[in-house]
Amino acid sequence: MKKYVPIEEGDYYLTPEGYRCFTEQYHLKRGYCCESGCRHCPYGFNKQNLKKK
């Protein structure tokens, strides 16, 4: 079961389209890569190559 990570200030921002975009700060706090190709992934996942760097 995945742990609940509370969202705090600085964990995300809203894009011009109105979507929530999680920052590197949030991804590090979460502690793992979801392999979804997140914009600010600190784990080096490259969705185009479907592998970790």
List key phrases describing it.
two-stranded antiparallel sheet; alpha+beta; single chain; two-stranded antiparallel ribbon; globular; 53 residues; 1 helix
Shape: globular
Report Rg: 12 Å
Given helix and strand content, the structural type is alpha+beta
Strand content: 15-25%
Can you write the helix and strand succession as a string? Answer: EEHEE
Please state how the strands of the largest beta sheet are arranged side by side.
1-2
Count every helix, treating DSSP H or I runs of 4 or more residues as helices.
Answer: 1
Summarize the structure.
The protein has 53 residues and is α+β, with helices and mostly antiparallel strands. The protein has one helix and four strands, in the order E-E-H-E-E.
Commentary on this structure:
13% of the residues lie in helices and 19% in strands. It has 53 residues and is of the alpha+beta class. The strands form two sheets. It has a two-stranded antiparallel sheet with strand order 1-2. A two-stranded antiparallel ribbon has the order 3-4. Strand 3 (45-46) and strand 4 form a beta hairpin. The model has no long low-confidence stretch (mean pLDDT 88).
